[in-house]
From TrEMBL:
GO biological process, one term: lipid catabolic process
Pfam families: Lipase_GDSL (PF00657)
Domain of life: Eukaryota
Keywords: Hydrolase, Lipid degradation, Lipid metabolism, Signal
Alphabetical list of InterPro entries matching this protein: GDSL, GDSL_Est/Lipase, SGNH_hydro_sf, SGNH_plant_lipase-like
Signal sequence interval, chain numbering: 1-30
Protein family according to the UniProt entry: Belongs to the 'GDSL' lipolytic enzyme family.
Protein name: GDSL esterase/lipase At5g55050-like
Molecular-function GO term, any one: hydrolase activity, acting on ester bonds
Amino acid sequence: MGFVNKRFLPRSLHLFLLFDLLLNTAGGEAAKVPAIYVFGDSTADVGNNNYLPENSPKANFPHNGIDFPFSRPTGRFSNGYNAIDFFAIHMGFRRSPPPSLSLSNKTNHQIMRGLKGVNFASGGSGIALDSMGSTITMTKQIQNFAMIKSNITARIGSKTADHLLSKSIFLISTGGNDIFAYYSQMNSPNNTGEELFVTTLVSKYGDHVKELYTLGARKFGVVDVPPIGCCPYSRSFNATGGCIDKMNELALGFNNAVRALMRNLRLTLKGMKYSIGSSYEVVLSIMKNSEALGYKEIKTACCGAGKFNARTGCTPNATYCSVRHHYLFWDMLHPTHMTSKLASLAIYHGSQNFATPINFKQLVEDEV
Ligand SMILES: *[C@@H]1O[C@H](CO)[C@@H](O)[C@H](O)[C@H]1NC(C)=O
Ligand SMILES: *[C@@H]1O[C@H](CO)[C@@H](O)[C@H](O)[C@H]1NC(C)=O
Ligand SMILES: *[C@@H]1O[C@H](CO)[C@@H](O)[C@H](O)[C@H]1NC(C)=O
Ligand SMILES: *[C@@H]1O[C@H](CO)[C@@H](O)[C@H](O)[C@H]1NC(C)=O
Ligand SMILES: *[C@@H]1O[C@H](CO)[C@@H](O)[C@H](O)[C@H]1NC(C)=O
């Protein structure tokens, strides 16, 4: 379905509803799935934290969003879109579905009919950081989804709701903050302690996935943890400016365990499908091929202050670079619009190197 001008919309109500369904993209190509439900941290947040107290991680001020339409700071930790926006675009939507905390009763007819979806992600949250008061924990994000699901069910009936949910995509992008938190309090590093940490964390991850499955989720698009030891924040603590190897090691250990977890869950959860997109492999690959991809700077953040622009966040009085797509990182922790674009492309269409056991496109197209 190509571009459809509003004046071509038919008058008949029946047809109108049909077109409404086909056009729930709000312009552009028709959506390939009914809805996208998003869970996770600042790599996925599109503005939920704007509604939280002062002390929660926020990005709803300049220079964030400088390359977003109308240079609007939306709460995304990016100069433009984040990876979730690009996944949504690949799936035929305009960008990420709206933040759950932005929903008011009146304005969400499509969402309440099980279309378009909702983004529950909250910057600073983690898989097991459930004691942190200033973010929406994963547990709470799933409760918020359960509430939306009951609204949808009340509107369209449980049979239709379950059918639409089973065809919808559930994106999860989390884990990095748990690893940061663990790393920062490690005092006597040892393999036993690290293995226990990863096992415990991945077990909690499994609980969240099972909870979503129970609520009707069938198609999971999981984004793994990037090489967080190589972000400007981490590098700024290495005298040589290299990556913090231990952080990457923890991220890799976690990512491998998540692969094993999802393989096992698929054996017990009937009808469950998944793809794990490797932001780890994508970022590593960008670092290796940065020049060919048009990057000029892969260590220093575009926006910030101090060493590697990583001593402060991207606040209104921080400096920022003029050519954003020359930078791998937007701020001390987060990728630029360009990096998210490349990452989502690799994970959506890419080879086994970037997404296993299938890529996101196959996940979308698979019949449930
Ligand atoms: C939404 O609806 C509930 C009842 O279903 C009501 O209590 C609440 O005030 C409404 N909120 C808004 C913002 O209209
Ligand atoms: C969902 O339903 C609950 C209970 O009726 C209501 O309070 C809430 O506002 C609804 N949420 C939305 C986004 O409409
Ligand atoms: C190993 O690490 C764990 C957790 O980090 C810690 O509690 C434990 O004391 C450490 N063991 C040794 C022998 O250092
Ligand atoms: C710091 O970077 C160097 C490479 O430049 C690396 O060899 C070293 O292990 C890194 N230090 C830490 C603590 O990871
Ligand atoms: C920005 O300005 C405020 C007030 O002048 C100051 O407290 C803060 O440290 C500054 N931040 C940066 C990144 O320079």
